[in-house]
Amino acid sequence: MAARTDLLDSTSRILGDLIGFPTISTDPNIDLINSIANRLDMVGARVEIFPDPSGQKANLFATIGPERDGGIVLSGHSDVVPVADQDWASNPFDMLEHDGRLYGRGTCDMKGFIAATLAMAPQYAALNPDRPLHFAFTHDEETGCFGARALAQTLRAKGLTPGVAIVGEPTMMRVIEGHKGCYEYTTRFSGLAGHGSAPDRGVNAVEYAVRYIARLLDLKHRLRDRAPADSLFEPPWTTINTGRLSGGVAHNVIPSEAVVDWEMRPVQTSDADFVKDSLKTYIEQELLPAMRAVDPESDIVTEVIGEVEGLIPTTDNEARTIVSELTGANHAECVAFGTEAGIFQSLGMSAVICGPGSIEQAHKADEFVALDQLSQCLDMLERLQGKLVA
Predict the structure, then answer these.
(1) Using omega within 30 degrees of 0 as the cis cutoff, is the peptide bond preceding 122 cis?
(2) Of 141, 177, 340, 366, which is the active-site residue?
(3) In a 10 Å sphere around its CB, with 0-12 CB exposed, 13-18 middle and 19+ buried, how is residue 301 labelled?
(4) 234 catalytic per annotation
(5) What mean pLDDT comes out for the span 184-201?
């Protein structure tokens, strides 16, 4: 029992250190990554840091055990969401313990899991495992999983294919085998300004944006009929949401610019292709010809903010099997929120999501993770040692 108390205390101390790095997605994470690298280097892990072009953000990939395919990845993102305009009872970057909970930005989403893996690292190193154990910590998950995408390219370039990914997002230690994808876009409409009394002499960007949204609504309803019969998601079909429409300057001015922010959550990639192909045809055959008949310079441009793969439930999933055995879970679930797990799956790995804390606390003021959740996570990570030796 004393050993477990020491391990939980170590996890709490490490988590306090991690929370002290204000790694909001808009800010650098390099100091945090260097700190983690030092911890892993001290136990003998082979550590690699992969900076982004700015040099201010980086991914970390470290290995304990042999250098070969088929390893197990413990994955977490290092960035956190902003605290601006949130009413915190304490400093969000100075972890506070109270009544069995650890408060601070990122405690559950998801530095608690990272801290637990780092607390376990000395035990993993002493084990001298036969199966490689990898630590993968990324940047910019909250803004589009850009770090994980870069890390995926890095692993491809290295020719390394781990076999299993355990992504420690907050699930209350439930085993999660699936989530929808998250595709986010900004579509910009450029028309021709003019006086509101002569609408035919201008190209009203807002009106064309409204027509575009009407097509999104039509597709939104048509996607219900495309839901797979065996879909495990709720709702079972791909969804579309129009998040923002902006444009115009005054009542009597034809607006020359408009912007639509929208997203879809595909349950299958074929749905995403269906939506994008339908919109492309609608733009090219109807909207642009009408706009350019008045002003040849008119245009519609869609910017991809992020296209994050979903985690697709599969019959054969070694990651699900391993984590279910480690936690004692007798079933796996699907969730609504997105993670980096689908990116690992796209590399040919089996992937599962399981971590301490509740998603209900993520992104909110006074975010916390309960100590008993960290203890359950440590139970899982300790039992993982049995999967690393022959």
Answers:
(1) no
(2) 141
(3) exposed
(4) no
(5) 96
